[in-house]
């Protein structure tokens, strides 16, 4: 076992900020004692090649929420397609799929989720 002297441990930073759209309604997982809310978040960026062609790439992020108040709010109010701003930290581990397979996965453990109002688009 390794013991660290807190006086000599250097500070580290693990901070993530994402602005995107929820790819699905949130799902409740875990146990009654240790529930977690998960949802996928899509972000994208565009890249313009010298030829003028434009590539748009979408990245999917797995968001997990453990904080009780935030967890309950997100589960109750977040809907697929809603735009949200997420801050948190990256975590790496394994996820057991419904078919029993185990896969490595990165997850953003959310500290805060800020909802944006869905704007009504005028009819053309």
TrEMBL record:
UniProt keyword annotation of Zinc present: no
Name of the protein: Single-stranded DNA-binding protein
Pfam (any one): SSB
NCBIfam families named in the record: ssb (TIGR00621)
UniProt KW Mitochondrion keyword: yes
Record-level GO cellular component terms: mitochondrial nucleoid
HAMAP family registered for this protein in UniProt: SSB
Molecular function GO labels: single-stranded DNA binding
PROSITE patterns found in the cross-reference section: SSB (PS50935)
Predominant location category: mitochondrion
Keywords, alphabetical: DNA-binding, Mitochondrion
GO terms (BP aspect): mitochondrial DNA replication
InterPro entries found in the cross-reference section: NA-bd_OB-fold, Primosome_PriB/ssb, ssDNA-bd
Subcellular location: Mitochondrion
